Amino acid sequence: MKVLGIDIGGSAFKGAPVDTKTGRLLAERHRVEIKSPCSLRAGVAAAREIARHFQWKGPVGIGFPGVIQDGRIGAVGNLGDVWVGQSGATLFRRATGCPVRLVNDADAAGLAEMRFGAGRGRKGTVILLTFGTGIGSALFYDGQLVPNAELGHIPWRGKPFERYAAASVRKRARLDWPEWAQRVNVYFATVERLFSPQLIIIGGGVSKKSDKFLKFIRAHARVVPARHQNDAGIVGAAMTWEQ
């Protein structure tokens, strides 16, 4: 099955056609920059541009950075509260002219990694954490997804942990890799106390630079980079049509 996968982040919409049987992108991904928070008009226009870029007429799967229940958007992080309560499936269907399914963006990345990547065949508790503008998370037990597990919002010193350890914080605070890894270690210690995972998969843009920070990571669980790296969200969004 060929599906257009779109991964929405805090700084861009990224999309590409996906072969959902193999997890392969069928074309070079197309990226549309946005500002965060993002207006409804700008977000809809970005999705429309991606669909037009590929001249797409088939099904579309979208990974959205917020809680998703039956195509409707719940709590939203960096994209902004204007999206809360919207029927995302309806908005993006009108924008693209195609049938659309929505899923939480980190859940999408997790689905891709559990089927085609670092989590394939793994039992027990597996957590995927995407480090970018914020911290997205996907929680699995024996291969089954627990939807909308927003572990980046675990409180730390009165604020969500993602404001302390996201990849965007490393850049903004000008932290070197060991300094940022120390913050991630504090976060991992909390996540491990709560969920006792056997495997932690690191996704998002930093997964392409795992050689710079993994050697500084300390955790009881095995910690590995996402095999699909920053394309996992696109692949997993497309996979919603097989769920």
UniProtKB/TrEMBL annotation:
Name of the gene this protein is made from: ppgK
InterPro entries xref list: ATPase_NBD, ROK
Keyword Transferase among UniProt keywords: yes
UniProt-listed NCBIfam families: PolPhglucPhase
Any GO molecular function: polyphosphate-glucose phosphotransferase activity
UniProt xrefs under Pfam families: ROK (PF00480)
UniProt keyword annotations, A-Z: Kinase, Transferase
Protein name: Polyphosphate glucokinase
Record EC number: 2.7.1.63
Keyword Transferase attributed: yes
First-level EC class: transferase
